[in-house]
Amino acid sequence: MAAGWNKLDGAKALVDSGIDRVPDFYVKPLDQRLSPQDLALHADEIPVIDVSPLLDSKPTSSDRSKEDVIAELLDASERWGFFQVINHGIGSDLTRRMLAVAHEFFQLPLAEKMVSYSTDIDAAVRYGTSVNPLKEVFLDWQDNLLHRFLPERQDQPHPWPTKPSSYELIAGEFVDQAKFLARHLLRALSEGLGLGPDYLEGEFGEHNVALRLNYYPPCPSPELAIGLRSHSDVGGLTILLQDSDIVGLQVKVQEKWKTVRSVPGALVINIGDQLQIYSNGKLKSVEHRAIVNADKARVSVGLFYDPASDVRVSPIPKFVDTEHPAAYNPCVFRDYLKNLYSKNLVGKELLESQRK
Ligand code: OGA
Ligand code: NI
Question: How far is the CA of 159 from the centre of ligand 1 (A)?
């Protein structure tokens, strides 16, 4: 390991220093590592859904109606908590440029990325490595940039990272389009749950949107390290854009890890903890993780469409009755987020701690 490297410098700086083995504090305990059978399984049960009927005001060439699509989205969200979408309205040119600028960001010199280093969970732009590198025993083999678009700050100029110079234009356009898609998906789920299209949006209030760029450098022993530990997403809906030719996302399906295939042009969507709480467990926020490989750096870009920070989330009365008592305690979303960073949790422990 290069002299002078420290944990905060992260996984890419470690690889760039020329290591040939994985340092002990990146070697995950056996039960969290990748096993050879995990690599053999693909999550083919996760459906790929053409969502154009939801987005177009005019009738489309699709032979499926809006109602058919809503039924498919709901079924996937109840069964797997994950689905992929195609014909989602975000052009392939923009997704390609978004992935390219994400790669470019992580290629910047460490000192330039560290300008955005912060431990303040309210910071609008926060660069870092793993989840809580100074506290955790085993780090994740990744670096990330978390970029939040806070509704309460809309009257102030947004603090865009200034490098790469094209980031603001490309990420700004991607966030706008991904928000549009997320809003339509949320409306469809709301309708599918029998709540009417506006209900969940109303619950989310002045929703929070965050963009997260993940960078997974090549790893000399991918079977020892994990790129992003098993977790479920904390918020509402996640839209994930993956590098087109490098897989890495794995989903826990019936207690087995399965790799999500990369479908050209598709975006991966998953349900977060708050939607599981609102629906009193009908919609599933499912455990997933990212694995690493020995050959190529991978990036992914997640758009998190979440309730506003001050919203108190609890099961919606429609889903609560004597047979289905409220399964979760109410929690203000901001407090839920705070727990994510203050406790060293894995898997669905955070959501489970919210159970009545
Ligand atoms: C996330 C996430 C998976 C990936 O950012 O929450 O699950 O493949 N990412 O990077
Ligand atoms: Ni996730």
Answer: 24
Containing domain of residue 197, as a range? 7-352
User: Does residue 158 lie in a domain region?
Assistant: yes
In angstroms, rounded to a whole number, what is the distance separating the alpha carbons of residues 32 and 39? 14
Task: Give the domain CATH number at 176.
Answer: 2.60.120.330
How close is the Cα of 21 to the center of ligand 2, in Å?
Answer: 27
Q: Minimal CA–CA distance to 208: which of 319, 336, 99?
A: 336
**Rounded to whole angstroms, how far apart are CA atoms 281 and 264?**
32
Structural domain count of the chain: 1
pLDDT range class, residue 348, cuts 50, 70, 90: confident
Q: Which helix (H) or strand (E) holds 78?
A: helix 66-79
**Does a structural domain hold residue 2?**
no
Q: Give the residue carrying structure tokens 């690889």.
A: 15
The reply to whether 13 falls in a domain is yes
pLDDT of residue 58: 66
* CA 319–ligand 2 middle distance (angstroms): 26
Give per-residue pLDDT as tens, 43-101: 999 999 999 999 976 665 667 899 999 999 999 999 999 999 999 999 999 999 999 99
User: Could you identify the atom of ligand 1 that is nearest to the CA of residue 216?
Assistant: 10
Domain assignment present for residue 1? The answer is: no
